[in-house]
Amino acid sequence: MDKNFYKTKVWRSKRKKILRRDNYECQECRRYGKSRPATTVHHCNPLETHPQWRLESWNLLSLCSACHDKMHDRNKDVLTTLGEYWREKVTKVSPPFQNTSMRHRETDEGDIFQ
After folding, report:
1. How many helices (H) does the chain have, and how many strands (E)?
2. What's the predicted TM-score (pTM) here?
């Protein structure tokens, strides 16, 4: 993984947008009726395995640092069960296109969806 990515202007800007989108609240804590400030933006599909989705809003989640730590098994460098839960959840809600450069798709009727 390129650690320098997190220092880029494009990442810092995207991070701010995601925190604002999620009202600066940890989305995992929110599931349980708790309100904790989010300080981290998590890649549900990890940057290491899915760099093409590094800036996709559907793949990003605002978390407090404690919940972010619960998403990763740092010893094995894999997602935990909780991390897998969120990865599956965001992929079901906003499934990625097979061709990630495609931004629109047409239905059989010619309607365009984003």
Report:
1. 4, 6
2. 0.79
> In whole angstroms, what is the distance from residue 20 CA to residue 1 CA?
26
Q: What confidence tens digit (pLDDT) does each residue in 20-47 have? A: 999 999 999 999 999 999 999 999 999 9
**Residues 67-96: b if buried by 16+ CB within 10 A, e if exposed:** bbeebbeeeeeebeeebeebbeebeeeeeb
Q: Which long-range contacts (CB under 8 A, 24 or more apart) does 49-53 make?
A: 52/100, 53/96, 53/100
- Alpha carbon 37 to chain centroid, angstroms: 17
Domain residue limits, the chain: 3-94
